[in-house]
From TrEMBL:
It catalyses: 2 GTP = 3',3'-c-di-GMP + 2 diphosphate. Residues 86-221 form the GGDEF domain. This is diguanylate cyclase. Pfam families: GGDEF. Its EC number is 2.7.7.65. It comes from Rubrivivax benzoatilyticus.
Length: 244
C-alpha cells in the first residue's frame, strides 16, 4: 500500500471556487433582494442560504408553502400530536370544476383564480397554521392545537369566503368559484403517518365532491376513529416505549 492509498491520508480535494452568481440570479428573478452585508462573509453566506431555503419552500405562483414544505411540517406535526395529545386538524381544499375556468377563460385567468383562493385561505387561519399549495388547484392546511369544535367553523369560513369572492381576470371580467373542503383530526396519542392522515382528509374531500361540491366534510371525531394501520403503528412501534 503506497502512502497515497492509505485511508488516513485521502487525496486532497481540488480547490473549489464558489459559484454564487446562479444563486443571486435566482433570487433576483424571484423578486427577492440580495443578502445584506459584506459579500462572501459568513453572515452574508448564511443570509443567502436562508433566502434559498425560503425560496425552495414556497410555491412560485401563490407564495404559499409548497408540497415539500408541507410534507416536512406534516411530519413534525404528527410527531408533536403523538407526544402532546393536542388536537390538530388537516384541511384539504380543492377548487370546484377548475378545468372549466381554464377552458372558458384561459390559463392566465385560472392562475388569477388560484392566487385569489390562496389569499383567502391564508387570510382565514391563524399565523401558527400552515397553508400550502399541494397540487394544481389543491391546497392543504395544517392547524396545530385546533379544538374539535373550531374545525368546522374555520373550514366553513373558508368555503363561504371563497363563495363570496369575485376574481377580476382582465378585460372587465370577474369570476366566482367555489371550493370543496375535507378534513380530519390527527389521532391523538397515536403514532400515525403523514400518508394516513392526508388520506383521511382526502377521503372527506372526495365525499364532499361526490355530494355536490361547494361543501365541507370533516371526519366525525366522536368515535375517535383509529384505522387498522394506525393501531399497528401504535403497538408495533419500538418508539411506543418512549411514551410509557
Ligand atoms: N391555470 C392553471 N391551471 C392549472 C394549474 N395546475 C393545474 N391546472 C389545471 O387544473 C385543472 C384540474 O382539473 P380537474 O382535476 O379535472 O378538476 P376540476 O375541473 O377542478 O373538477 P373537480 O375537482 O372534480 O371539481 C386541470 O385542467 C389542470 O390543467 C395551474 O397552475 N394553473
Amino acid at each position: 500500500m503506497t502512502p497515497l492509498d492509505c485511508p488516513r491520508h485521502p487525496p486532497a480535494d481540488p480547490p473549489v471556487t464558489l459559484r454564487l452568481n446562479e444563486a443571486l440570479q435566482l433570487l433576483a428573478h424571484s423578486g427577492l433582494p440580495e443578502p445584506t452585508g459584506e459579500p462572501g462573509s459568513v453572515q452574508w453566506m448564511q443570509r443567502l442560504i436562508d433566502a434559498l431555503v425560503d425560496l425552495s419552500s414556497r410555491d412560485a405562483l401563490t407564495g404559499l408553502a409548497n408540497r415539500r414544505a408541507f410534507q416536512l411540517a406534516l411530519e413534525r406535526e404528527i410527531d408533536r400530536v403523538a407526544r402532546s395529545g393536542e388536537p390538530a386538524l388537516m384541511l384539504v381544499a380543492d377548487i370546484d370544476h377548475f378545468k372549466l375556468v381554464n377552458d372558458r377563460h384561459g390559463h392566465a385567468a385560472g392562475d388569477e383564480v388560484i392566487r385569489a383562493v390562496a389569499a383567502v385561505l391564508a387570510d382565514s387561519v391563524r399565523p401558527m397554521d400552515l397553508v400550502a399549495r399541494v397540487g394544481g388547484e389543491e391546497f392543504a392546511i395544517i392547524l396545530p392545537n385546533c379544538p374539535h369544535t373550531f374545525g368546522l367553523t374555520v373550514a366553513e369560513r373558508i368555503r363561504q369566503k371563497v363563495e363570496r369572492m369575485s376574481v377580476s381576470v382582465g378585460n372587465g371580467r370577474a369570476l366566482s368559484v367555489s371550493v370543496s373542503v375535507g378534513g380530519a383530526f390527527a389521532p391523538q396519542w397515536v403514532r400515525s403517518t403523514p400518508a394516513l392522515w392526508l388520506e383521511r382528509a382526502d377521503l372527506q374531500l372526495y365525499a364532499a365532491k361526490a355530494a355536490g361540491r361547494n361543501r365541507v366534510l370533516l371526519e366525525p371525531t366522536a368515535d375517535s376513529h383509529v384505522s387498522h394501520d394506525e393501531k399497528r403503528l401504535l403497538f408495533d412501534s419500538t418508539s411506543f416505549q418512549d411514551f410509557l
